[in-house]
TrEMBL record:
GO terms (BP aspect): gamma-aminobutyric acid catabolic process
GO molecular function: succinate-semialdehyde dehydrogenase (NAD+) activity
Active site: E261
InterPro entries, A to Z: Ald_DH/histidinol_DH (IPR016161), Ald_DH_C (IPR016163), Ald_DH_CS_GLU (IPR029510), Ald_DH_N (IPR016162), Aldehyde_DH_dom (IPR015590), Aldehyde_DH_Superfamily (IPR050740)
Residue stretches in coiled coil: none
CDD domains in UniProt: ALDH_F5_SSADH_GabD (cd07103)
Protein name stated in the entry: Succinate-semialdehyde dehydrogenase
Family: Belongs to the aldehyde dehydrogenase family.
Membrane spanning residue stretches: none
């Protein structure tokens, strides 16, 4: 490990209170909670710990701001988003430092997320002024129909810790563009990035009460209060499938609109005709981005038996060369996992796979503290009954599974293996044959496929899953529709005599 020194959070005046109605306020109870740097175990801030009462107050403010906000011009909403995009970009170093320090991703990756996260604001700045509608005469010629879009109303936004900026901007951007007000609960482990984001939006001219940010150690109470209040019309959630299902149940009580970005279990397929360097570049990104803590992470890597020896050797060489350490230290490739429990879970999954017959090619045992580190690990010949085949690993562990057969037969077999999961977020396939790539990518039951690449995310593309990986899409042309209701008026056409 290369942890050299303990970085301090170098951002001055970082907000740590609740953001309600444009003001920073403490929790009514006065309670606060600690935010830990997972690379050092050091406490870097204490943040207001809201309860259900604080949450409801924030939602009342959002609800009472809704009508005025919906009446603003699309251009003014667009300009706020564009200014926020510019401010985030100008303050990229601050955002990246906060993210690395509160959740561990290496600083260069955090800079990448700042660019990606800010881009959602630029994209939705452009979408805000393109909210169209429709107009037609009914087939019988008797009526003129005008189809319009209107904001769904106050929204509940809930995000995970793994992409603290981008998971927020991907929801806040389209909500602002559409004219919705919001209550936003970031993850307990990473509240600071979201509070800084609220501050930037205020500076960009977002009116008071449009965005309200509530941090808490009691997500069930806070979000539950919002869901049962009858004041919110929509919930947009990114996180685990288990919590997503709970929110879907709660949303049914008041028939709220829902968008769900839930867990994945991505297959990564290496065909026997793949260019191995391309496949290795792709798998390193799909596996190691965010130290493996991504819903899009390659969870099951299926490699054709004809190339698995060479692929495993080259992958092991690349994985063992990665430098593990504090993400603020230059030269670090792999940061810590987000918390101790995460290391426990990864260690358990690896031990289980090994006890069922997998071979460890590198890594495979947790590293000593301080900080929550697990080394880059390659497992070969992972058996189908291993727990990590159905659970998200969420760590730097590449699980290789061989598959057999020739031509179409191999392709069909691997697609069947890949689809044998309730998840359907993303898949990856590497081959040099265009027809084969087409057959496999259309056979995969997922929302997104990376073809000879390990990265599919882009603000201009409709990100999302099928099956138990979610409902709705974020980004792209569809992203704003999640925050718009469709209505129409029908007017009789007076005929000329
Ligand atoms: P999580 O436990 O579901 O947490 C996500 C958010 O839900 C957090 O803000 C969490 O608050 C909150 N939450 C927890 N329990 C809740 C409850 N009872 N009611 C309402 N909200 C509740 O997920 P995670 O472990 O942080 O994140 C990892 C998961 O997110 C993985 O499954 C990953 O695949 C998924 N993910 C999906 C996407 C996608 O786009 N499909 C993107 C990124 C991540 P606390 O922080 O206080 O627990
Ligand atoms: Mg932390």
């Amino acid at each position: 490990m290369t942890t050299i020194e303990t970085p301090r959070l170098v951002v001055p005046d970082l907000p740590t209170d609740l953001f309600v109605g444009g003001s920073w306020v403490s929790a009514a109870s006065g309670r606060r909670f600690d935010v830990e740097n997972p690379a050092t175990g050091e406490i870097i801030a204490t943040v207001a710990d809201a309860g259900a009462g604080d949450a409801l107050e924030a939602l009342r403010v959002a609800a009472s701001t809704q009508a005025a906000w919906a009446a603003t011009s699309p251009r003014s909403r667009s300009e706020i988003l564009y200014r926020a995009y510019e401010l985030i970009t100008a303050r990229a170093d601050e955002f990246a430092t906060v993210m690395t320090t509160e959740m561990g991703k290496p600083y260069p990756e955090a800079r990448g997320e700042v660019a990606y996260g800010a881009e959602f604001f630029r994209w939705f700045a452009e979408e805000a002024v393109r909210i169209g509608g429709d107009h037609f005469v009914t087939p019988d010629g008797n009526n003129r129909v005008v189809v319009r879009h209107r904001p769904v109303g106050p929204c509940v936004l809930v995000t995970p810790w793994n992409f603290p900026l981008a998971m927020g901007t991907r929801k806040i951007g389209p909500a602002i563009a559409a004219g919705c007000t919001m209550v936003f609960k970031p993850a307990e482990l990473t509240p600071l990035t979201s509070l800084l984001l609220a501050d930037v939006l205020r500076e960009a001219g977002l009116p008071d009460g449009v965005l309200n940010v509530v941090t808490t150690t009691d997500p069930g109470d806070v979000v539950g209060a919002w869901m049962s209040s009858g004041l919110a019309r929509k919930v947009s959630f990114t996180g685990s499938t288990a919590v997503g299902k709970l929110l879907l149940h709660q949303a049914s009580d008041t028939v709220m609109r829902t968008s769900m970005e839930l867990g994945g279990n991505a297959p990564f397929i290496v065909c026997d005709d793949a260019d191995l360097n391309t496949a290795l570049d792709a798998v390193m990104v799909a596996k190691m981005r965010n130290t493996g803590q991504a819903c899009t992470a390659a969870n099951r890597i299926f490699v054709h038996r004809g190339v698995i020896d060479e692929f495993a050797e080259l992958l092991t060489r690349r994985m063992s060369a990665l430098r593990v350490g504090d993400g603020m230290v230059e030269g670090t490739d792999v940061g810590p996992l987000v918390e101790r429990k995460a290391v426990d879970k990864v260690a358990e999954l690896v031990d289980d796979a090994v006890s069922r017959g997998a071979t460890v090619l590198c890594g495979g045992t947790r590293l000593d503290g301080p900080g929550h580190f697990y080394p880059p690990t390659v497992l070969r010949d992972v058996r189908p009954d291993s727990a990590l085949m159905s659970a998200e690993i969420f760590g730097p562990v590449a699980a290789l599974i061989p598959f057999d057969g020739d031509g179409d037969e191999a392709d069909d077999a691997v697609v069947e293996l890949a689809n044998a999961t309730p998840a359907g977020l993303v898949g990856y396939v590497c081959s040099r044959d265009a027809e084969r790539l087409d057959a496999i990518s259309s056979g995969l039951a997922v929302g997104m496929v990376g073809v000879n690449t390990g990265l599919v995310s882009n603000p201009a593309a409709p990100f999302g899953g099928i099956k138990e990986s979610g409902l709705g899409r974020e980004g792209g042309r569809l992203g704003i529709e999640e925050f718009l209701d469709v209505t129409y008026t029908s007017t009789p056409i007076r005929r000329r005599r």
